[in-house]
Here is the input.
Amino acid sequence: QVQLVESGGGLVQAGGSLRLSCAASGSIFRINTMGWYRQAPGKERELVATITGGDSITYADSVKGRFTISRDNAKNTVYLQMNSLKPEDTAVYYCKFVQVYRNYWGQGTQVTVSS
Here is the structure.
């Protein structure tokens, strides 16, 4: 089993920045993928960014150039630096951890961007 603890959400004005963190603990294998998804009210959950253990990165088109995903393998932690935030970035952000074909989700952290 893997447990995920997220932190860093909050309220910010448009144009501002936030940094999300997600720490994984439990039975962690070397080969895994970590990432961030988000779900806005009335919408489906969508991919924001993912990063593999080999640092292969994928971004949603809507966040390219504004968000940066990174990871610290020694701490089993993934980060999402969010800059130039827009009101449409408002959502609950979820951390996802994938290993051995199993998916684990964090509890979610609210990000609210005011205009």
